[in-house]
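Homework help thread (please don't just give me the answer)

Our assignment gives two proteins as sequence + structure token strings and asks us to describe the second one. The first is just a warm-up. Here they are:
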Amino acid sequence: MKRKLMALLLTVLMIQPKTEFSVNAEEKGKFNASFLQGWLCRDWTAERWQQEFAAAADAGMEALILQSVCDFLYTQDDTSAHKQDAVSYTYTSAYAMYPSSLDALSDCTLSIQNNGDALALALEAAKQEGMQLWIGTISDDRWWQYGWGIPAVSADGICYLEQWSKDNATLCAEVITEIQMRYGETYEDTIAGYYYVNEIWNIDAACSKTDGGQYATILGENINASISACGDTPLMISPFFNLDLSEATQYGDFWSDIFQTADFRPQDVFAHQDGGGRQCNPSVIREWAIALKEPVDEEGLRFWINNETFQANYTSKPVSELRAAVEATADLAQEHILFSWNHYYNPLVDSSLSEVGEVFLDYALSCVSGDVNADGALTAADVVVLQKWLLAVPDATLADWKAGDLCEDDRLDVFDLCLMKRELLNQ
């Protein structure tokens, strides 16, 4: 028996951790960050920004994600033109979170606060609260005209998507460069990174490979412009999926194709939208996360899960359903983020959210040391599941990996297992 136990221990010691986790060891929250949309916060005062960051910190988060610093809404004036012909549109409204010197942003409506510089207020509040801010670039609603079928071509042989994408890529890169120059020195440690606003999905023609690889190449080149502008600063991207358009494995293959062009770096973040807002059940959520994680791991960037906190009717998701979605992928994700605590659980935004907000806080901040199966207590079942996970037993999953990091070194290995057994014996 002793020989068998020793052989098992040696086997476990030889296993490399399946995931290099990244988390502040002092951070007890289950969620790293939450998305915040510009229409909600562009006119907040300095005090209101600090309230939001303080509340996010109290919810166990490290950062907020400003979804975009500029929002363009368009109307197609020339209705005889193709829907994808970007030049047939004019913008009906344009908003910016800071006063830009770029010609494309010169007519934007600005905040009524701080001489129009809402971004400076957000960054200063984050700095004062010891938090960080991810900064999204350009939200251009013409983006949603593309991605349907084979990319359309004009009578002159110009691919509409390619033309729009080049202009969009240039502007996004210019915004990143301008923000770095304007705020980078003062808020170097406060800017967590930049957010790539164009939400890519499982485009049917790309997933079925009937587009000749056009989408993967065009989108990869668009992404590269932002990556290049970021320098060493991380870029976050958060794609989603539509169950009606492809199989999960086809979507994974599409991303493998994009990675052939897009030059992501190890510091960049792929934050997969989990599908919970589209009523996907936990098994479907896990299936699609696995399909996306494989090519992301091969590319070598960080894999996070963006858990959706809304329901199909855009009301707050019950926290019990959020928990089920999180547990479905807890062993896959290095971090979990939210779309969006601010909009769906934060009573500072809407006082009617007080009750669901309290339930969320109880869940987000709960952590029993060693409770990797998240049943509320450390038991022998947690030892078994962690041991199976370390041995790569099929279907062995961890509902809360952070609870198992007893060594507080951002990884799970046999040393955490030993400490877990010790804690269990000491109960």
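The one we have to describe:
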Amino acid sequence: MRFSAVLLLLAGSVQAWSCPSLDDPLPRWAFDLETAGLLRPGGILPDDALAFHAGVTASAWRGPLSALLLRSAGPATTVFREGGAVLQLGGGITGEALDAGSGREGRIGTFLLARGSLGGGVRFEERLSVWSGSDEQAPDAFPAEHMGMDKGRHLYVDRGFVALEAGSFEAAFGRIPQRWGPGRFTNLLLSDNSPALDMIRVRWMPSQSLTFTGFVSSVEGDSAKYLTAHRMDLRPADWLRLGLSEAVLFRSDGLDLAYMNPFIPWYPVQWNEREDDNAFLCADFTAFPVPGTALWGELLVDDLQYQHEYDRPNKLGCTVGAGWAGSRLPISTAMEYTRIDRYVYSQKLPFNYYLHDGRIIGSELGPDCDRLSFSVASPALWPVDLEMQASHRRSGEGTVSEGWPDSVSAGGPFPSGTVEHCTALRAVARWMPSASVELTLSAEHSWLRNVGHVPGVSGDEDAASVAASWTW
């Protein structure tokens, strides 16, 4: 099991109040360690995120790093091993109490994990979880999909898949989490904002510098709505990583073999052979120009108007960021700016909105929005990990559900209409005395202006939470 895959799957998403909180996933450490040079750069960033490599050096990070690797390898206990077959079982429980503008709330959740291998390159994994919350929200340590259809307790299949490996080729079948792109705070094409997708995924790594990933997935099984995506990761040098991705959300009564073919470009197919499908192109990079420094960027093309007679606007999204992490001094910083044009993720037909389970498959910011984010973190007081986060977000009146009106034209302000502003400051302290126990304290203050896009309506919000997790 790749350390990075488990690390992502353990990552929790922060619940949002009226001002969305900043993300603080555990993969932050993977990014920081790579930037610091403690992990050999050049890892790939498809849905398994950073692939850990050898090359860890002795430094002040060694204590936190050792615990991180133990944590990413667990939670699981080997209960069976014979020949090439291995079965590991694990689980955990999380309790959380928070005090926010809506009042005091309590949440509790537990999960069961089974994973292992059958030999011959066959591995599997499944996670089931159940939770209850006074505010109908899952604990932060649980994936974002835990909304459920009924009130009260919620049982959910987080993931479950089988992967077959043969040399440089891998095929996986099942419910697999997805996250593509180098962004520290958000991802534009595929993120973990929506639930894991049921998919068939193939991956081919002909060399250490080239990886190809493609999948076809069901978005709404009862309405024949599908998402296909493929990605090429290229590492021409240890200090540079490039990515090129494409995705199409479409509706089909039967198999659409053109879109389900991961080895051809889909945009020409959509433009010349299909109608009303929602297609995206995305390019990204990560660079390490000098030791301890990382630069990254992502460009999402939802629609590019190369014909100007209709005076339609482009639909683009972009992220640029920079980070620093010391190899001897255990401290890291990251700054990132994201802008998403109005009408991105939307389309003229409602069933082609870029949504899964009612949530955007790409960035949780949504269209007509931008955000500047900053964080500084350090495990210098290990086993305590400290992090400070700050952000300023501007949201216009555009939403995914407004579609792509026939009357839309280029020009106009960004963000549009009465702009809602949210400035947030958040502090997080995690105490991890062992790889299986974690206590997290957080506090957040938000300054809001033009709340709900109503001019002059402003206010402050405070929130604090404490969470305890035990895994086995």
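TA reply:
I won't write it for you, but here's a hint about the kind of observation we're looking for: The mean pLDDT is 81.
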